[in-house]
Amino acid sequence: MIIENAERVLESHRLCDHCLGRLFAKLGRGTNEERGRAIRFVLNMERSKRGLPPIEESETCELCGNVFERIPELIEGMKSAASGIEFETFLVGSRFPEEIREREEAIWKEFGIDTAEPINREFNRELGKAFGRATGKDTAKNPDVVFIVEPYSGKIEVQINPLYVYGRYRKLVQGIPQTPLPDFEDSVASIICRTFSKTSAGKCVFKGAGREDVDVRMLGNGRPFIVEVKRPKRRRLDLDAIAREINASGKVEVLNLRFVSPKEAEEVLTRNHRKEYLALVRVDDGVTPEEAEDVARKLKGLEIHQRTPWRVRNARADRVRVKRVHEAEARWLDEKHFELRLVTDGGLYIKELVSGDKGRTKPSVSDLLGKSAWCERLDVLNILDD
Questions:
Q1: Is 215 known to be catalytic?
Q2: CB burial string 300-338: b at 16+ within 10 A, e below
């Protein structure tokens, strides 16, 4: 059946061994070129028995125009397009003219062929294998770079896939935002990204797992973050050296830098985190050690209903969030101050938990004391993975 079908096709169309073999790509093993050559060989033996002339491979294939012969030339073009780009893994894609695809599908339909594969699939595979042999690079499902090749024009596009780096940051000083804001010279993101952009020759995008206010320090084990480096020309980054340069700022420290996959990066940013805080509470009407201890005792395990704080109402949806205080400890300092160490659900606004935010947070430290209180200083001590 294969030989008969091949003979019918070749009597009407001048095909190279690649295009002949591709008609039967789903049958047997080996490359399409090997398959086409074998089919043509057996077919010509059968035709010889019948006294018919052989059907040799034509000088120019009417389907592909001998495009597979251009592979060595395209490999050189790919090398040139990737010059100056560090990569170890790659994939190849191609753009074939629509008329080639239509011509191929017309042959399938004309002869009832249902065992074929598209030309671009074979071309990508063969070009990828040849480029790998020529460069020592490997193909991968999530490659460093993707080559998009237009086989007839020779145009080659290189898509550089991003790098993802996980880490935790400590913000050691007050007065800098997490991301750039007007009137602030620096931010956590700019301090971190400055070094990554310079080192990778790419564009750095910083993504934090939550954020703290400008006047809040981030201490302890640090806040998880992801750096996405877009179109990096250098991928073999020395993360220890990067950390040393960032940490020399004296404002921000980074810990535990490591490369991660896109999936891991997404999980870091969507994971729920409990947070440990240290709040300095001020009570102008005065507070006793007993009152401070009583507030901590009442807060522990308490469910808090918190409407979007007044100060962020323009940036956050106005709704009531239900969060829990898991741990609370008080340390009395003087007649107007005590410290509260809190472990809470992520997303609970601590300043408003203290003040009550004019009744938008219920209950609050002010409610439990029966007198006005506010947060004079706040530090994030640790980010705790649930």
A1: no
A2: eeeebebbbbeeeeeeeeeeebebebbebbbeeeeeebb
Instruction: State how far the alpha carbon of 58 is from the alpha carbons of 3, 40, 197, in Å.
Output: 18, 12, 53
Distance CA 253, CA 246 (A): 6
Q: Tell me if residue 56 falls in helix, strand or coil.
A: coil
Q: What is the pLDDT of residues 119-174, one digit of tens each?
A: 999 999 999 999 999 999 999 989 999 999 999 999 999 999 999 999 999 999 99
- Tokens 């896939």 sit at which residue? 161
* Burial (Cβ within 10 Å: 0-12, 13-18, ≥19) of residue 82: buried
* Amino acid (1-letter code) at residue 63: L
State the catalytic residue, choosing from 186, 213, 294, 367: 213
Q: What is the pTM of this model?
A: 0.83
- 343-369 pLDDT, tens digit per residue, is 999 889 999 999 999 999 999 999 999
Q: In what order do the strands lie in the sheet with 145-149?
A: 138-139, 89-94, 145-149, 156-160
| Burial category of 151 from C-beta neighbours within 10 Å (exposed 0-12, middle 13-18, buried 19 and up) | buried
CB atoms inside a 10 Å sphere around CB 47 = 15
